[in-house]
Write a structure and sequence with these properties.
The strands form two sheets. The chain has a two-stranded antiparallel sheet. Strands 3-4 form a two-stranded parallel ribbon. The chain is mainly α and 544 residues long. The longest helix has 32 residues. The protein is globular and about 70 Å long. It is built from 20 helices and four strands. Helix 11 packs parallel to helix 13. It is a multi-pass membrane protein.
Length: 544
């Protein structure tokens, strides 16, 4: 009989789904009740993710396979938790909690079913991270996308509706490619279980292998649309910048789900055998093109929202390049970069609303109300030759500077450590795999230039925002909006202080992924639980 803790694997899916259903029965006018239920669910989700992460950080990693319906693979649906999925689950729960906390100020009340859609988004992302077969990956992918459609359209405004309709159209095309790819894979291999696919691919006939690779390529297009690889990325900056601040903060994880799936399938199906390295050149060249396009967009952006949107493309391009390189040491640094950049971009999207809130009122300075923060002494300042910067503006300025340092990859924060780990690995190997030395140096130059572009753009935006005139109306900012931003940025500081253990975890995760036999054996050896009612079974030492 399995222990109760084993059921924690399925909890990240069931908990938000059940919460979303429960919230539908609560009247929309009871927004406080809905907010408390939703927030409590995400707190439990975070606690669950922490436990799973600690389990996978221990010595008994990679022995957790959950058989849904008590059917063994490849016939039943399996959920698999390992170091990579545990890390991504924890990151998802952190962003979800931060975004929902931020939304309590106003955004959860500007439309219907915000909390239900948020819970469904978390359930879809969690399912995509845990599932062990391609069909259920498609199901959870669609749950995630369907929830994101409603969240992007949450609120008002012509720009948001226009961007939302474009987003829906593009992702429906991605879903179509996903379905076609899954059909090709199943028609060729006769299975959609990832572990079973890894077992069957080495023994496939050449003609069937070609069809299998074609199906994988079509699947790859769907994932690369979600990641935002050039030229499939034209929709992303507009959509993310048009979304409300908490929704954009949650959306920061969506492109990383695409990266996760590509990394998982690449290492599992195309790490060894006759198809080893399949698609690596496409990822390498596409990543370079995406990084160049994102860097140009960052430099050209005048609005902070579009700057953040193009920063997502810079992050995606960097990670795609590393996947194309397919080097374990570089990939370890890339995983740290994935976590750091996701936390930073999520915090930046929410910070942008606070920074820009006063512009419509003719002021670039924000202050918290006396009830929310501070003692209100600044309201009684006498006019003088100089102007005193309110305390809240100083806090926002520090957060903005931290985002700039992290996006640019400057010391001492985690963005620098992650980029340094990647670049030092590239320079230390000289030539990685079959990549010429010139190409390696081109990658290094692109990563450095993207950081320089982020530094220039953030400095320009900071001067315009924080050093402009501070005369005029002072809008209201609540502590509940400041705290999530500060917590996300504090977590990047924790990553900096704990860089050694973090890199050790990333190294272990990459080594596990590079050995597909561990995944295959764990799924294949997972046994069903005996029926306690069936005669002849002995559960817990009892007498049959």
């Amino acid at each position: 009989m399995i222990s109760w803790s084993h059921h924690l694997i399925v909890t990240p899916i069931l908990l938000p789904m059940m919460t979303a259903a429960l919230l539908l029965f609560i009247d929309e006018r009871n927004r406080t009740t809905k907010a408390l239920v939703s927030l409590g669910s995400v707190v439990l989700l975070l606690a669950n993710a922490i436990v799973l992460f600690l389990i996978e950080s221990g010595p008994n990693s990679f022995d957790n396979v959950y058989l849904l319906g008590n059917w063994s693979a490849p016939f039943g649906v399996v959920l698999v938790i390992d170091g990579l999925s545990a890390m991504m689950l924890l990151l998802t729960a952190i962003l979800g909690l931060a975004a929902l906390t931020f939304s309590l100020a106003k955004w959860h009340a500007v439309g219907a079913h915000f909390h239900s859609l948020s819970q469904l988004l978390l359930a879809g992302v969690s399912g995509a991270l845990l599932t062990g077969d391609l069909f259920n990956l498609f199901v959870f992918f669609e749950v995630m996308l369907a929830a994101s459609y409603g969240l992007l359209l949450h609120g008002t405004g012509t720009l948001r509706v226009k961007a939302g309709l474009h987003y829906i159209a593009v992702n429906l095309v991605a879903a179509l490619f996903f379905l076609i790819g899954v059909s090709l894979v199943y028609g060729t291999a006769g299975t959609l279980n990832m572990a079973d696919l890894a077992l069957r691919m080495p023994d496939m006939e050449p003609d069937r292998l070609i069809l299998m690779e074609a199906g994988a390529a079509v699947l790859g297009v769907a994932f690369l649309i979600k990641v935002g690889m050039w030229p499939l990325c034209f929709w992303l900056p507009t959509a993310y910048s048009a979304a409300s601040a908490p929704v954009a903060g949650m959306f920061a994880i969506l492109s990383k789900v695409g990266i996760y799936i590509i990394l998982r399938l690449t290492m599992l199906l195309f790490g060894d055998g006759p198809s080893a390295g399949f698609g690596a050149e496409v990822l390498l060249i596409g990543g370079m093109a995406t990084l160049i396009f994102g860097t140009i967009g960052v430099l050209a952006s005048q609005a902070l929202g579009r700057l953040a949107g193009y920063s997502v493309l810079v992050s995606s391009g960097t990670l795609l390049m590393v996947l194309g390189i397919n080097d374990g040491v570089v990939s370890s640094g890339a995983l740290l970069y994935l976590v750091s950049s996701t936390l930073t971009i999520s915090a930046f999207f929410m910070l942008i609303e606070l920074v820009e809130r006063g512009q419509d009122a003719g002021a670039n300075v924000l202050a918290v109300t006396m009830e929310a923060y501070g003692d209100g002494e600044e309201a009684d300042l006498d006019d003088g030759d100089g102007t005193t910067m309110p305390g809240t503006m100083a806090i926002l300025g520090i957060c903005f500077a931290a985002c700039g340092i992290l996006l640019a990859g400057l010391p001492p924060l985690s963005g620098f450590i992650a980029k340094f780990a990647m670049l030092s690995a590239m320079m230390g190997t000289g030539s990685i795999g079959t990549t010429p030395d010139l190409a390696v140096w081109a990658l290094i130059v692109l990563v450095i230039l993207s950081g320089l572009a982020a530094l220039i753009s953030m400095t320009r935006a900071g001067i315009r925002t924080f050093w402009g005139s501070i005369e005029g109306a002072v809008p209201r900012v609540l502590v509940v909006e400041l705290v999530p931003v500060m917590i996300l940025l504090t977590l990047t500081l924790v990553l900096t202080i704990q860089a050694g253990p973090a890199m050790t975890y990333m190294d272990t995760t990459i080594r596990t992924l590079a050995n597909p036999a561990l995944y295959v054996d764990a799924v294949r050896d997972a046994t069903v639980v005996d029926d306690p009612i069936q005669p002849g079974t002995d559960q817990g030492g009892g007498t049959p």
